[in-house]
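Students often ask why inverse folding is considered easier than folding. One informal answer: many sequences map to the same fold, so there is more than one right answer. In these notes we will look at a single instance of the problem. The structure comes first.
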């Protein structure tokens, strides 16, 4: 059964029984999902996003935040396990592998996302699904089905919450992400709708993640790891008989009221979410109604909210051959959520990747925004600092009104000799409407995986991943991905 056969076929405006709330609607979708019923476009998107996420996990396995998580687990007395983590040398228990893998995947700001929900689903769903698939001897097809289910849960819940949850200080990757991990695990464990709903009820109490990372620190990197572990644990608790609350998304004291508050007409107040058509939250790709088909991938190693402005700046300086030293000022108009990054500093790699002025200055000076541009030396580069002081960011009311349907930016660049150039980027490169090609997905993966795995093993892993739904058992592939 595919999502079109659950309740209302996921179609907008179609009737759905009033007694079925959004939690049970999602649970029914997860329980009824069959990979063979998923359209070919979405299935290929799922392969692409698995490849993209695993590349980010492999490269992020040696980042300090990931290593700190592994040290903390050892300090807590957690014994080594048998589950491999992409890019990592150590083997962990099932829950710790999901936590380490989720942290690694988010550690470099290269992981995918779903624009309408401002959420990074891959770095939560893929580590949780991979860890459980390896532990339970699941096939590649089972794994891919679980990934589709997990993306649907994380993306739709985040879209139904955003941007209200963001303005309340919550990071959707950590909060909505926990349901994505629970959904992936429920799919792999073969839960019926009642047990899937129970898993969501248990997972909701572990939803967490604040935007306080904008003030500094590396805790943001752990948000998907926490969500992957806790969502997975919620499913395991369900398997062992722990009762969770039903209707946890729409309940008066449930997820949506707690994390998102009221609707557009009553900001901050209670709303009645019982009639919410959850599978229609956000938007869809013209070729598929599955959320995974409408997710983006990152060509630049920084916060996605800055990508439209990066594309605009790069287009100007390349087309007009403008040297960084010739730039007098850059004025970026964008939506409010993105403009909030205009006040973020760059004392650490994490904040630098979130900082509108630093990132745009980097694009001007380097004509790129890569991982190599956020180290300590780069953050102290006098030429970058001088350019960052010339960058101004403001809310453009028209672009803000179009958010989250689009993540747009309008950039006006002025040169010291009086010339002025303007670009409007309605949606940045890597989005579902302007996607990376398969060759670019492969190039990104190999660029991230080869330094850790070596060229031969990285290429073999990539070849297997393009055919993942034909893999009979996931452990061998997972071992190939580990260091």
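Output (designed amino acids):
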């Amino acid at each position: 059964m595919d999502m079109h056969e659950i309740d209302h076929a996921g179609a907008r405006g179609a009737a759905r029984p009033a007694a079925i709330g959004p939690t049970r609607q999602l649970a029914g979708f997860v329980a009824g999902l069959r990979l063979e019923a998923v359209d070919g476009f979405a299935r290929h998107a799922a392969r692409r996003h698995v490849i993209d996420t695993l590349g980010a996990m492999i490269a992020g396995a040696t980042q300090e935040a990931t290593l700190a998580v592994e040290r903390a687990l050892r300090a807590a007395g957690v014994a080594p396990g048998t589950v491999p983590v992409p890019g990592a040398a150590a083997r962990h228990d099932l829950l710790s592998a999901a936590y380490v893998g989720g942290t690694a995947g988010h550690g470099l700001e290269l992981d995918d996302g779903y624009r309408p929900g401002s959420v990074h689903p891959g770095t939560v769903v893929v580590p949780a699904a991979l860890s459980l698939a390896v532990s339970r001897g699941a096939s590649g097809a089972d794994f891919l089905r679980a990934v589709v289910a997990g993306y649907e849960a994380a993306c739709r819940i985040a879209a139904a919450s955003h941007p209200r949850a963001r303005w309340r200080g919550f990071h959707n990757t950590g909060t909505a992400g926990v349901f994505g991990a629970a959904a992936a695990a429920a799919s792999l464990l073969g839960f019926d709708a009642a047990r899937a709903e129970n898993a969501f009820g248990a997972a909701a109490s572990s939803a967490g993640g604040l935007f306080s990372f904008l003030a500094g620190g590396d805790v943001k990197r752990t948000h998907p790891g926490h969500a992957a572990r806790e969502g997975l644990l919620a499913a395991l608790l369900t398997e062992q008989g722990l009762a969770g609350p039903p209707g946890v998304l729409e309940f008066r004291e449930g997820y949506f009221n707690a994390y998102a508050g009221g609707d557009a007409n009553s900001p901050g107040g209670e709303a009645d979410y019982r009639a919410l058509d959850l599978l229609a939250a956000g938007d869809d790709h013209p070729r598929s109604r599955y959320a995974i088909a409408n997710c983006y991938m990152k060509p630049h190693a920084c916060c996605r909210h800055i990508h439209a402005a990066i594309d605009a700046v790069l287009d100007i300086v390349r087309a007009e051959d403008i040297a960084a030293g010739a730039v007098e000022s850059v004025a970026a108009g964008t939506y409010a959520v993105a403009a909030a990054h205009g006040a973020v500093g760059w004392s650490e790699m994490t904040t630098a990747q979130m900082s509108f002025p630093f990132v745009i200055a980097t694009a001007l000076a380097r004509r790129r925004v890569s991982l190599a541009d956020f180290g300590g030396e780069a953050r102290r580069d006098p030429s970058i600092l001088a350019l960052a002081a010339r960058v101004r960011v403001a809310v453009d009311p028209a672009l803000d009104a179009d958010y989250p349907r689009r993540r747009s930016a309008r950039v006006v660049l002025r040169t010291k000799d009086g010339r002025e150039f303007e670009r409007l980027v309605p949606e940045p490169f890597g989005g579902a409407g302007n996607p990376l090609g398969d060759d670019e997905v492969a190039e990104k993966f190999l660029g991230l995986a080869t330094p850790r795995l070596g060229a031969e093993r990285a290429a073999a892993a990539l070849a297997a991943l393009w055919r993942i739904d034909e893999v009979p058992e996931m452990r061998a592939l997972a071992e190939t991905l580990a260091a």
